[in-house]
């Protein structure tokens, strides 16, 4: 049976990914900052293991990799993310907020992918996915706002494009996913049901091959322009 | 004569821009953490450290009431470049500030100066490797990502300002050791730039590059 590792698994999209993959019989490794408080994940059954991770902390990522040494991972999904201050105008973007968003949304996924690359190489499917966004698109940005969040997702795209080029020779498929606007805590309930978004992304992942590496693919299967 | 602010002139490209504009008689405000940078006629040295919190605010206070025709922001950290795949906190934070956030801070604080200028041109010097569609260098994670982030921030602030008379010019130097030739080519692109509805990433010789 296949194994998926999902960061930020205790709520929103991450939780639904864990729910759907476990329902399909996958072994799910779901990370949470405080596993003892991950009550929603704990209800998903024995196929879901909750593992501790502070997604932006290099030491925490290394500890996770040490705990998982030798464990094959078929699909790695760097899902954990934060929005930061979405309403700040240009002059109000603070360094603390900007760097915090970058740490969680950009650097954490990069460190995680590098740390768990050996595990994904042991897997059969060899997918390394990261959660991007339509907000990452520069060409589609006609209305501004969300400075730190947008910039972080654009930066994430750039890193995943580099990983895709480098790791393709190892048979790893690095892709970016766009969940669409999903009704979660982060969006205040606005957007499509999380079940539909996750079902779409799972279908995208299921159909991936090495030729798809480096793409930014939406839950609807459509590419997002850079 | 028109005026230009170049930051950071501690970077070689910034210094060459300042020299080039000064040689053509422009009033040049040369901003950087070192200095003074006023060895040439027409060059006014202004203190600016992109890494320092509040650095853009202090620079804006120095230039209060000064019209700027062209604002040129050159990113880049100082000191010995780290290995391209170095992801230590000090390295990525420095890159994200100098290449992405500090340019945003500076542009946002100098809006009144730019709007008081005749040309209203905002230039951000980037790198071709920051384009998603172009192949990046192996291991070039942070530099590429921070420049790509800057492209997005520039697009955001252009939308926030919504000033039809402004020209937003993210531009990539030539991949050549001849920095003077690259700067002269970019200066010609800047000189001929006109306000456009959609911002584009440009090469040193004015070709549109994919984001």
UniProtKB/TrEMBL annotation, chain A:
GO terms for molecular function: oxidoreductase activity, acting on the CH-OH group of donors, NAD or NADP as acceptor. It comes from the Bacteria. CDD domains: carb_red_sniffer_like_SDR_c. InterPro entries: KR_dom (IPR057326), NAD(P)-bd_dom_sf (IPR036291), SDR_enzymes (IPR052184), SDR_fam (IPR002347). It holds the Pfam family adh_short. SUPFAM superfamilies: NAD(P)-binding Rossmann-fold domains. Residues 2-192 form the Ketoreductase domain. Transmembrane segments: none annotated. This is SDR family NAD(P)-dependent oxidoreductase. It comes from Pelagibacterium lacus.
TrEMBL record, chain B:
SUPFAM superfamilies: NAD(P)-binding Rossmann-fold domains (SSF51735). GO terms for molecular function: oxidoreductase activity, acting on the CH-OH group of donors, NAD or NADP as acceptor. Signal peptide: none annotated. This is SDR family NAD(P)-dependent oxidoreductase.
């Amino acid at each position: 049976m296949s194994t998926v590792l999902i960061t930020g698994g205790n709520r929103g999209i991450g939780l639904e990914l864990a729910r759907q993959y476990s329902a399909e019989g996958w072994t799910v490794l779901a990370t949470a900052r405080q596993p003892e408080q991950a009550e929603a994940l704990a209800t998903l059954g024995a196929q879901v293991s909750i593992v501790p991770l502070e997604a932006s902390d290099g030491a925490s990522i290394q500890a996770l990799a040490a705990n998982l040494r030798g464990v094959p991972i078929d699909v790695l999904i760097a899902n954990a993310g934060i929005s930061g201050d979405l309403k700040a105008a240009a002059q109000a973007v603070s360094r603390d907020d900007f760097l915090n968003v970058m740490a969680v949304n950009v650097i954490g996924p990069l460190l995680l992918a590098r740390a768990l690359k050996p595990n994904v190489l042991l897997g059969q499917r060899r997918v390394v996915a990261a959660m991007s966004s339509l907000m990452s698109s520069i060409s589609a940005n006609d209305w501004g706002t969300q400075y730190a969040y947008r910039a972080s997702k654009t930066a994430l795209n750039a890193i995943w494009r580099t990983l895709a080029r480098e790791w393709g020779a190892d048979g790893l498929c690095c892709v970016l996913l766009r969940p669409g606007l999903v009704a979660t805590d982060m969006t205040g309930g606005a957007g499509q049901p999380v079940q539909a978004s996750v079902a779409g992304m799972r279908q995208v992942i299921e159909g991936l091959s090495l030729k798809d590496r480096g793409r930014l693919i939406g839950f609807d299967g459509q590419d997002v322009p850079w | 004569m028109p005026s230009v602010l170049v930051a950071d002139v501690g970077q070689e490209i910034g210094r060459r821009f300042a020299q080039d504009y000064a040689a053509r008689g422009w009033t040049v405000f040369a901003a950087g953490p070192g200095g003074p940078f006023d060895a040439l006629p027409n060059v006014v040295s202004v203190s600016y450290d992109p890494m320092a919190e509040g650095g853009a605010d202090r620079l804006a206070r120095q230039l209060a009431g000064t019209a700027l025709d062209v604002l040129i922001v050159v990113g880049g950290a100082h000191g010995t470049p780290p290995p391209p795949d170095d992801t230590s906190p000090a390295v990525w934070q420095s890159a994200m500030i100098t290449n992405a956030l500090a340019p945003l801070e500076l542009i946002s604080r100098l809006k009144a100066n730019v709007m008081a200028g005749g040309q209203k041109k905002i230039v951000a010097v980037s790198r071709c490797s920051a384009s998603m569609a172009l192949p990046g260098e192996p291991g070039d994670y942070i530099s590429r990502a921070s420049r790509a982030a800057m492209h997005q921030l520039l697009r955001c602030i252009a939308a926030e300002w919504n000033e039809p008379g402004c020209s937003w010019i993210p531009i990539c130097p030539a991949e050549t050791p001849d920095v003077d030739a690259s700067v002269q080519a970019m200066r010609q692109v800047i000189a001929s730039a006109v306000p456009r509805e959609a911002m584009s990433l440009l090469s040193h010789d004015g070709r549109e590059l994919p984001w």
